[in-house]
Design a protein that fits this description.
- The protein has a 3-stranded antiparallel beta sheet, covered by helices on one side.
- The N and C termini lie far apart (47 Å).
- With 71 residues, the chain is of the alpha+beta class.
- Helices cover 35% and strands 18% of the residues.
- The longest helix is centred in the last third of the chain and has 17 residues.
């Protein structure tokens, strides 16, 4: 498995046998699974959705309520 970001076509071709990383813009990456030969484009720093944020907040509050207060 490899993760690539914007780079030259020859560097990309030497890493994943395809020049695809040369066409990436800012804030994009490629995930390459070598066993399957699968290439997937992703946003590595995408902001999580509101559902995820709300679920994380509820989980943290639940954890905090179960943890005894330190003396």
């Amino acid at each position: 498995m490899r993760a690539l970001f914007q780079m030259g076509a020859s560097d990309s071709a030497s890493l994943i046998d395809a020049p695809d990383a040369a066409t990436l813009g800012f804030h994009r990456g490629l995930f390459y699974h070598d066993r399957e030969g699968h290439i997937e484009t992703f946003r590595p720093y995408a902001q999580p959705g509101n559902d995820w944020i709300e679920a994380s907040e509820a989980s943290l509050k639940s954890r905090q309520a179960r943890t005894p207060a330190s003396s």
